[in-house]
Design brief:
Phage tail protein beta-alpha-beta fold, 7 helices, single chain, transmembrane beta strand
Length: about 900
C-alpha cells in the first residue's frame, strides 16, 4: 500500500491535455481500463484499485484530448477526476449522494506492475518490490532467485552480487547497473565471480533484466544482457496535493529461528511540489553467523567437505554454524529533483553503501577430529554512485531527450592472512593489506522520435551515444617471497590499467495496427585499452650457435595500447496471429565484447606461494556473439473469471560466442621445448571451439484478486568444450644441428683438432600449433543447473492480508558429487534441492504493514544453483524473520 502511480513512458504537459491522442481501449474492468489510458495518454494516474472493484468501462476509441478521453472512459461510473501538475491525475470514487468515499493508499492488485513483460516482444523480466518483500533478502542475490534465465554465483560470505544471464557473466558481459550507472568493479578471485556490484535491497524499487544483446542504451560491450537495479524516487511517496511522505521499515529475526538475521531497517523521507522534490534515505543491515539446513543432506553427495574421509567431522560440520559469515551494511541515499520550465527536469543522485565481509576456509583438526573455520582475510567495501540526470519532454513527437553524467567508485580494503609456507622454503608471505579500486566515468545521451503514419502505423526511432571509462587502481603492502624476486612483473591478479568504451546506436521500431511489430538496430562500439605487463621465462638465445647451448632468463615486456571497433546489428519481428492475447516473436542479434584490463594484464601468484602462476595475455581477442531466440507471449484478462489476469512468456534462446575468453590452467610459456609440463601456469585464452549457451525459459503469472500463482523455470541444454593453444603466446623452440666446428681436444699429452657438433635454437611451428582441451577453471566450466520456482498465495480481509507459499527447486548438476578428483580443477557440485518458503503480509491500516517470512521451512541442506561451492558455505537453514513497515 501507499501512494503509488501508473507511470507512462511519455509524461503529459498542459498542452498535451488538449492535444488529440489516438485511443484504443476495449471494454473491460475499470481499473485495467485506467491502466491502459495512462499508458496511451502518457500521464500518471493515482487511484485505489480496491475502490474501483466491480466497476466496468465501455472503453474508449478514436482521437480525443487526454481530459476529454478520461471523461468518456469514466462516463456512467461513480468516479471523478482532477488533474494536478503537468502529468498527474487523481481519481476518487463518489457515493450515491456525490460525496467522495474515503480513499486508502493505492493498492495494485497482483503483480500488475509487471504485466508489460507479457506484452513485450523480447526476453525481459522484472522483479517488483512486492516480490522482494515476500522473501527478505540476506544477500542481494536472493532478489533474483525466482527469475527465469538468471543465476547468481553467490558467495554467502561476500555481499558482492554477480549476475549471470543464460549462462553468461563476468568482465562486463552482463551490464550490471544501478539507475543506469555501470558497476564494473572487479577483483580476480577463484574464477567464480569476476565482476561484482554492491547494492542495498532496502533502496530497490524494481529490477529489470534484458536478456541477450541490446541495440539501445546500456548495450555497449554486452553479450549476455542488462541487469538494471532501479532505486526509489521521491514520486513513489508523493502525489496530488501530497507534498511530503516516506517509509520506515524495521525488521529482525524472531527467536531461535532468527538464524543470524539481526536488525534490518531503513528510513526514507520525500518532500516536494511542482517546483521540485527531495528524497533522503538511510539503511542499516546486520547479520551474524547462521546455521545451514540439515535435511536431505545425502543430496550433497559423498565428496563435499570430505564426507567419506571424515564422516563424524562431516556431521559436526553440517550441524554447526557456518563460520565467518556475519556482516554489517550501511547505506545513504540523496536525490534532488528540479522541474525546469518547458517540460525539463534536472536531478542529482547520490548513493553510498559500505559493507564488510570475511574470507574463511574449513580445516581439519587432527586432535579434536573436527572441522573448524579459519579466517583467511577480511574486507571493507565502499561503493559510491553519483549522477546528474536531465530530461526534456516537450509537446513534440520528435523530442524525448534523456542525458546522464555519472561517476562510480568502488573500493575494497582487504586484510590477508600470511600463508603457511616455512621461511626456509623461500615461499613464506607474511600478512599484508590490499586495496582495489575501480573508478568508472560515464556519459549517456539518447532521444526518441515518433512518427505517425495514418491511424494504423507508427515508427519509433531511439538513438544516442554512451561512453564510459574504467580505471583500475590496485595497491598493496605485500612483501614478495624470496622466490618471487625473479618475477619483476608481479602486480597481483587485479592489475592496474584503463579501458574506454564508446558507442553510437540507433534502433527503429515499426508498428502496424496491433498485430505487427518490426524493429532493427545497429550499434558501433569502440574501445581503447592501455596498461603495462610482462612475463619472465627461459628461452634459448636467438641467432647464437654453439655447443652445450643453454636457456637464459628472458623478460618479455608489453606496453599495450590497443584500439578496435565493431558494428553489431539486431533485428526482431513480432505478430499477433489473429487473436489479441497471443504474440509470437523472434529476435536475432550480434554482440561484441573486447577484453578487460584483468584478462590482458594480470600476473602473479594466486595463493602467495607454491609454483602456481598467473600470466598476462596481450594477444587476447575480442568475443563475438550471435544471439537468436523464439518466443511467445500470452496475456489475457478475464480468462477464468471477471477481472482476473493471466500472463505467460516462453522463449527458446541460443547464444553462440566466438573467441570466448576463459582461464586456461595449463598454458606453456615461450621457450618451451616440450608441452603439457606446466600445470598451474594459467592465462586467459580464447576458446578455439564455439561456446554455446542455449535453453528454454518459462514464466507464468495468474492473478484472480483473492488468489494468485507465479511460476518460473529455466532449462539449460548441452555442454561446451574449451580448447586452446598449448603455447598460448607461441615461441616454441627446439635445438637443431648446426653442423660441426673444429675444436682443440687434448688426447694424452697432445692436443689435436677434432670436429665438435654445435646447435642453434629454431622456432618449432608444430609446437606453436599444438592444441589442448579441458583445462578450464571458471563458472563456464559447466552449464548452470536447471532451476525454477512456484508461488501460490491468497488474499483476505478486503485483500489487506496476503499469505502464500513458495517452492524453489533445482534438479542440480552433480556430475562430481560422488566422483570428485583433480583431473579437472573445477567440479560440478550443485546438488538438487527443494526448498519451501512461507510468507504473510498484513496491512493493519492503510499505512502500517506487518510481514513475516519463514525461509527454508523444511530445513533443506543445499547450495543455490550456480552458487560458489568452493566457498563451502551452504545456504541458510530454517529462518523466521519479521518486518514492520510504516508509510506516510
Amino acid at each position: 500500500m501507499g501512494i503509488g502511480s501508473v507511470q507512462a513512458a511519455e509524461p503529459a504537459t498542459p498542452s498535451q491535455r488538449t492535444a488529440l491522442i489516438h485511443f484504443d481501449i476495449p471494454a473491460q474492468a475499470l481499473d485495467s481500463a485506467v491502466l491502459a489510458f495512462a499508458e496511451q495518454a502518457g500521464v500518471q494516474v493515482f487511484f485505489d484499485s480496491r475502490k474501483l472493484a466491480g466497476l466496468r468501462s465501455e472503453g474508449l476509441r478514436g482521437e480525443h484530448s487526454a481530459q476529454e478521453g478520461l471523461g468518456l472512459l469514466l462516463r456512467g461510473s461513480p468516479v471523478r477526476y482532477r488533474f494536478s501538475g503537468s502529468d498527474r491525475v487523481g481519481l476518487e470514487r463518489v457515493s450515491d449522494d456525490g460525496q467522495a468515499l474515503e480513499l486508502g493508499a493505492t493498492h495494485v492488485d497482483s503483480n500488475s506492475d509487471a504485466d508489460w513483460v507479457y506484452q513485450t516482444p523480447r526476453s525481459v523480466s522484472v522483479i517488483t518490490r512486492e516480490q522482494i518483500d515476500k522473501r527478505p533478502p540476506r544477500h542481494a542475490a536472493d532478489m533474483l532467485e525466482e527469475t527465469a534465465g538468471v543465476y547468481t554465483a553467490v558467495n554467502q560470505r561476500d555481499p558482492g552480487l554477480s549476475v549471470n544471464i543464460r549462462g553468461v557473466q563476468d568482465y562486463g558481459r552482463v551490464n550490471m547497473n544501478i539507475d543506469g550507472m555501470r558497476q564494473n568493479f572487479n577483483v580476480n578471485g577463484h574464477q567464480q565471480r569476476n565482476g561484482v556490484m554492491f547494492v542495498d535491497p532496502e533502496f530497490i524499487s524494481s529490477i529489470e533484466i534484458e536478456k541477450g544483446t541490446q541495440a539501445g542504451m546500456g548495450g555497449a560491450g554486452v553479450i549476455g544482457g542488462i541487469a538494471s537495479f532501479n532505486t526509489v524516487q521521491a514520486s513513489d511517496f508523493l502525489g496530488p496535493d501530497k507534498e511530503y511522505g516516506g517509509r520506515l521499515r524495521a525488521g529482525n529475526g524472531i527467536g531461535e529461528l532468527g538464524n543470524g538475521t539481526n536488525f534490518n531497517g531503513s528510513a526514507l523521507f520525500a518532500f516536494g511540489n511542482e517546483l521540485g522534490d527531495v528524497l533522503l534515505g538511510v539503511s542499516e543491515r546486520h547479520f551474524g553467523d547462521y546455521r545451514a539446513g540439515t535435511n536431505n543432506a545425502d543430496n550433497l553427495g559423498t565428496q563435499i567437505r570430505g564426507k567419506t574421509s571424515y564422516p563424524e567431522a562431516w556431521k559436526d560440520w553440517l550441524h554447526s554454524e557456518v563460520g565467518e559469515t556475519g556482516s554489517v551494511t550501511r547505506s545513504q541515499l540523496l536525490k534532488l529533483g528540479l522541474n525546469l520550465p518547458n517540460d525539463q527536469r534536472l536531478q542529482l543522485n547520490y548513493m553510498e553503501t559500505d559493507t564488510d565481509s570475511k574470507d574463511a576456509w574449513t580445516y581439519y583438526d587432527n586432535q579434536t577430529r573436527q572441522f573448524y573455520y579459519k579466517r583467511t582475510g577480511s574486507s571493507d567495501f565502499n561503493a559510491r554512485n553519483a549522477s546528474l540526470d536531465y530530461s526534456y519532454s516537450p509537446d513534440n513527437d520528435l523530442v524525448d531527450l534523456k542525458a546522464k553524467l555519472y561517476f562510480v567508485s568502488t573500493r575494497q580494503d582487504r586484510w590477508n592472512a600470511g600463508n603457511d609456507a616455512s621461511a626456509s622454503s623461500n615461499n613464506r608471505v607474511e600478512a599484508y593489506g590490499d586495496r582495489f579500486q575501480t573508478d568508472t566515468w560515464g556519459l549517456q545521451l539518447q532521444n526518441t522520435s515518433r512518427f505517425y503514419l495514418g491511424d494504423a502505423d507508427k515508427i519509433t526511432f531511439n538513438y544516442g551515444t554512451e561512453l564510459f571509462q574504467d580505471s583500475f587502481k590496485p595497491n598493496t603492502d605485500r612483501v614478495p617471497a624470496p622466490n618471487e624476486q625473479a618475477l619483476p612483473y608481479v602486480q597481483g591478479t587485479t592489475p592496474e590499467g584503463k579501458r574506454i568504451m564508446a558507442s553510437l546506436f540507433g534502433d527503429v521500431q515499426y508498428e502496424h495496427g496491433d498485430w505487427l511489430t518490426v524493429d532493427a538496430g545497429l550499434r558501433y562500439d569502440r574501445y581503447r585499452l592501455t596498461g603495462e605487463t610482462g612475463i619472465t621465462t627461459w628461452m634459448y638465445p636467438r641467432g647464437v650457435t654453439g655447443e652445450n647451448l643453454q636457456r637464459v632468463q628472458t623478460h618479455l615486456i608489453f606496453d599495450e595500447e590497443q584500439e578496435q571497433g565493431r558494428f553489431s546489428p539486431t533485428f526482431g519481428i513480432a505478430v499477433r496471429p489473429g487473436v489479441d492475447w497471443m504474440q509470437v516473436y523472434t529476435r536475432w542479434g550480434r554482440g561484441w565484447r573486447p577484453p578487460s584490463v584483468t584478462e590482458v594484464f594480470m600476473s602473479g601468484r594466486p595463493h602467495g606461494g607454491g609454483s602456481e602462476m598467473l600470466y598476462p595475455n596481450p594477444f587476447l581477442k575480442a568475443e563475438e556473439s550471435h544471439n537468436w531466440e523464439l518466443g511467445v507471449n500470452l496475456f489475457k484478462e478475464s480468462l477464468l473469471q471477471e477481472g482476473d489476469r493471466f500472463g505467460a512468456k516462453v522463449a527458446y534462446f541460443d547464444t553462440r560466442i566466438d573467441n570466448f575468453s576463459f582461464m586456461d590452467v595449463n598454458a606453456d610459456l615461450p621457450g618451451a621445448t616440450a608441452l603439457g609440463t606446466s600445470l598451474g601456469r594459467s592465462a586467459y585464452q580464447n576458446n578455439l571451439e564455439q561456446t554455446r549457451f542455449r535453453g528454454v525459459e518459462y514464466s507464468l503469472d495468474y492473478d484472480a484478486g483473492r488468489y494468485y500463482s507465479q511460476l518460473s523455470y529455466t532449462h539449460m541444454i548441452g555442454s561446451n568444450d574449451f580448447c586452446s593453444k598449448q603455447l598460448y603466446m607461441g615461441g616454441g623452440q627446439r635445438l637443431a644441428n648446426a653442423g660441426t666446428v673444429m675444436r682443440p681436444v687434448r688426447v694424452g699429452s697432445r692436443v689435436i683438432m677434432l670436429p665438435v657438433r654445435v646447435s642453434r635454437a629454431e622456432d618449432a611451428a608444430d609446437l606453436d600449433q599444438a592444441v589442448s582441451c579441458g583445462h578450464i577453471m571458471g563458472n563456464a566450466s559447466y552449464m548452470p543447473a536447471d532451476r525454477g520456482s512456484l508461488t501460490v498465495g491468497m488474499r483476505f480481509l478486503d485483500r489487506t492480508l496476503d499469505v502464500g507459499a513458495r517452492l524453489r527447486y533445482s534438479k542440480g548438476n552433480g556430475e562430481n558429487l560422488n566422483d570428485h578428483g583433480y583431473r579437472l580443477i573445477d567440479q560440478a557440485q550443485w546438488p538438487k534441492y527443494k526448498v519451501y518458503d512461507l510468507y504473510a503480509s498484513y496491512w493493519m491500516t492503510p499505512s502500517l504493514n506487518l510481514a513475516l517470512s519463514l525461509e527454508n521451512a523444511t530445513d533443506e541442506a543445499y547450495f543455490v544453483a550456480m552458487g560458489d561451492t568452493d566457498n563451502l558455505s551452504l545456504a541458510r537453514g530454517r529462518t523466521l524473520s519479521g518486518m514492520l513497515e510504516y508509510k506516510f
